[in-house]
Amino acid sequence: MKCSLPCVLGILLCSTAAVAMEPAPDAASAAVIGRVLTSPALATDLQRLADGVGGRVSGTPAMARAIDWALDAFRNAGVEAHTESYTMPLTWSEGATRLEILGDAAFPVSLVSEGWSAPTPAGGIEAELVHIGNGTEADFARVGKRAQGAILLVDSSVIVSWDDLESEYDRAVPLKQRAVEAGARAVLWTAARERRLLYRHTDTVDGELSPLPMATVAREDALRLARLADNSATPVRVRLTMPNVVGGPFLERNVVAEIRGREHPEQVVVLGAHLDSWDLGTGALDNGCNAALVIAAARAIAAAGLKPRSTIRFVLFSGEEVGFLGSRAYVVQHRAELDRTRAMVVVDSGVGRITGFTLSGRADIVAPLAELLRPLAAFDAAALSLAGSLGTDNVDFMLEGVPTLSADQDAANYMPNYHAASDTFDKVDLPLLAQNTAFITATVFAIADRAAPLGPRLSRAEIAKLLESTGLDKSMQVGGLWEEWAAGRRGRAP
Ligand SMILES: [Zn+2]
Questions:
Q1: Which segments within 260-400 are labelled E, that is strand?
Q2: Distance 447 CA to ligand 1 centre (A)
Q3: What is the structure's pLDDT at 5?
Q4: Separation of CA 395 and ligand 1 centre (Å)
Q5: How remote is the CA of residue 321 from the centroid of ligand 1, in Å?
Q6: What is the CA(463)–ligand 1 centre distance, in A?
């Protein structure tokens, strides 16, 4: 059921009969929902960020401007905010990326470097272009010695669903490994979006450079190159020039604001979203809209003059796109209070309607959470999944045993614009964003205002069991996150 904004507002604030059998929202929920739905600041904040600052890669001057935006927006919302610093291993920006086809079949190729890709050596790399199919083990076996010293071109499917996106990430780390072992010199990915739309990804999980130069080639150009390579009697030779600029360690910042609890100020509910974005577009869907959501939540609660039982902390993370660096740093810096952290709620899936939460295996919090969501039934957002979630800033909280709630959202227009030049303010459905914001604000307030936490912090043994039961252990191995957890360098100490 898709509920329009006036419908939600009407049900929650005016009508008592619309949602039969469910309790009505209490006065606090109704107050924050009403304020979110009637304030123009959510849209103006987002517009200032997306259009005024634009793309904001961690470690760049644009990110510093985005942090100023956040501090200013929190201040205007009536909530004091500060920054907390941590060290990123390196900074990165793209140079003049270029791919020349050597020989008669030359045509202009449109491509961009992958984020955090190694640069090519001065003068570029001249090599044979080897079409490696999907880059499976069988593909590498078929190509054999030809991969050595070559530039590999990898196929892709157009992404449409969340599952497609997940498999795109899942194959990247093992494929990169195979390319290194085969002695390839660079990897070119066929873009998974049509109409020559370019986007930037990375598959670094720790903010370090990729071991090989890697770039994404406009889909139509890549398909043409693949056909040329497949059908040519002689090898297709190309020159890849990618003078990416890599700088030294950098002090990056998270932005942190809070509304202190009236009864248990030492207990904390974290509402988080990442503020950083990629830079071809303006990071409106990923994740400017939800950074603005976090600020709007703070504004609504402050404006309503409400004090929850425990503290709500509003955190805008940096470094998410390059390996959850900001949330990982937050968890380390706040480790002493994680026993008292009631939950971490994160929103990072664009502007599709929120349908519920993924709880990463926390069966123990389903019942209390379902009870808490009943008065918010008009939002139709109470689907609770026990699946594991590895896609965003919840990861390090989950590995510390803190209950995490990752908002599930309709895909809406997320996939076609994901990390792409087309991720701009005009793609944001503002009424739907306001509806999501109202729902999240009421939910987070209710978690903080509850007499008791939803559930306990888990021990390391309990976390290990949960990783196994959700299959997160396998996903962490595939995604390159397992080693640090297993070695005790990441997550709750034994
Ligand atoms: Zn994101």
A1: 264-274, 310-317, 341-346, 354-358, 383-385
A2: 24
A3: 45
A4: 13
A5: 7
A6: 25
CA of 288 to the centre of ligand 1 (A): 9
Average pLDDT over residues 51-64: 98
pTM above 0.85, yes or no: yes
What type of residue is 331?
V
Domains and CATH numbers, the chain: 5-89+249-457 (3.40.630.10), 92-246 (3.50.30.30)
Please tell me the distance between residue 224's alpha carbon and the centre of ligand 1 in angstroms.
31
223-230 own/partner pairs: CB under 8 Å, 24+ apart? 223/190, 224/107, 225/101, 225/109, 225/129, 225/131, 225/153, 225/188, 226/131, 226/153, 226/155, 226/190, 228/101, 228/105, 229/129, 229/130, 229/131, 229/153, 230/131
Output the CA 401–ligand 1 centroid distance in Å: 22
Q: Could you tell me which of 351, 316, 315, 375 has the C-alpha nearest to residue 434?
A: 351
101 CA distance to ligand 1 centroid (A)?
34
More reliable by pLDDT, 411 or 1:
411
Distance 350 CA to ligand 1 centre (A): 8
Residue-wise pLDDT tens digits, 162-183: 999 998 888 998 999 999 999 9
Residue 86 and residue 396 in contact, taking contact as beta carbons nearer than 8 Å:
no
User: What distance in angstroms lies between residue 274's CA and the mean position of ligand 1's atoms?
Assistant: 7
For ligand 1, the distance from its centroid to the CA atom of residue 343, given in whole angstroms, is 20
Tokens read off for 368:
């209390």
| 247-272: burial string, b at 16+ Cβ within 10 Å, e else | eeebebbbbbbbbebeebbebbbbbb
Around ion ligand 1, residues with a beta carbon closer than 5 Å are 286-287, 348
Report pLDDT for 9: 52
Which stretch of DSSP H or E encloses residue 254? strand 250-259
